[in-house]
């Protein structure tokens, strides 16, 4: 299990000047692609998202007044509740419109047809499944894994076999859990649910 603190991650500004990204984890795939990628992005201005053909995306509001995501021929979606995930195709030409000032989101991307992510709020202990991948991002409270204590904006991720668990230590502890599984294995041996 690997740990992260978003405040300590390197910042990469977007080419269009509309925000920045802090990469948490990147699991390399075949060629120059990835199997899955997790990051935290700050959306600082209205504008287009970068296209990611063949990729499925799930973003979850972490802080701020929210953002409306829209694309031609699909209904717009307002992302206004912290901790509520929204999934969409990276093929779509998505445009972001801020509800107020800048907002911060957790962004999970998976290669369509090979990998899939299930993102949800949790207040329960998280234990990685054998062969599974995933991430836990602390929204509130205090969590612990081994000797490591995690607070808001921190978390843990794993890729493949990992031992241990991440346990909430206080009644107000809430986190986002992203389970990432290989959907090509129909027997479910590599699933994380």
From TrEMBL:
Gene3D superfamilies found in the cross-reference section: Jelly Rolls (2.60.120.10)
Source species, domain of life: Bacteria
Record-linked InterPro entries: RmlC-like_jellyroll, RmlC_Cupin_sf, Uncharacterised_HutD/Ves
Pfam families membership: HutD
The protein's name in its UniProt record: HutD family protein
Organism: Streptodolium elevatio
């Amino acid at each position: 299990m690997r740990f992260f603190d978003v405040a300590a991650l390197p910042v990469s500004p977007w080419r269009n000047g509309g925000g920045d990204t802090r990469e948490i984890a990147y699991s390399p795939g075949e060629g120059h692609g990835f199997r899955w990628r997790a990051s935290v992005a700050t959306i600082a201005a209205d504008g287009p998202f970068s296209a990611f053909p063949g990729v499925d995306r799930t973003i979850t509001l972490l802080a701020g007044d929210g953002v409306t995501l829209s694309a031609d021929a699909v209904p717009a979606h307002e992302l206004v509740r912290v901790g509520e995930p929204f999934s969409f195709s990276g093929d779509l030409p998505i445009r972001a419109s801020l509800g107020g000032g800048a907002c911060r989101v957790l962004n999970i991307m998976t290669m369509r047809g090979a990998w899939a992510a299930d993102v949800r709020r949790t207040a329960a202990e998280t234990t990685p499944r054998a062969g599974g991948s995933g991430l836990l991002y602390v929204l509130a409270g205090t969590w612990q894994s081994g000797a490591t204590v995690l607070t808001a904006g921190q978390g843990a991720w794993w890729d493949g076999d990992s031992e241990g668990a991440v346990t909430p230590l206080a009644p107000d502890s809430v986190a986002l859990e992203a389970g990432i599984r290989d959907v090509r294995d129909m027997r479910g041996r590599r699933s994380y649910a």
